[in-house]
Specification:
about 90 residues, alpha+beta, Alpha-Beta Plaits, about 40% strand, globular
Amino acid sequence: MMSMVRAHVIIHGVVQGVFFRAHTRDEAKRYNLTGWVRNRRDGGVEAIFEGREDDVKRVLDWCHKGPPWAHVTNVHVDWEDYTGEFKDFSIIYR
C-alpha cells in the first residue's frame, strides 16, 4: 500500500496573477489530493497537499513549472505528518 503524505509548499517567482491557484487546484483534484492553496503577501503561493505519496510528488513536479504564464524560480517543500484533516482541495482567498 502506498503511504499517505503531507507536503507544505511555498512557490516563488511570477506566480500571482497567472491563475496559479486555479491550476494548482485542478492538478490536485486530478490526483485526488486534499488540502489548500493561497497567495502569500510576499508574492509567492503557498499550498498544502495531502494524499498518496506518488500523487503528491507528481503535483510537486508540476509546481516547478506551473501554468503557462507562470515563471517559477523556487519551490520549497516541507514534508509533514499526514493528518487527513481535509475533505477536498480548495483555494483560500484572503
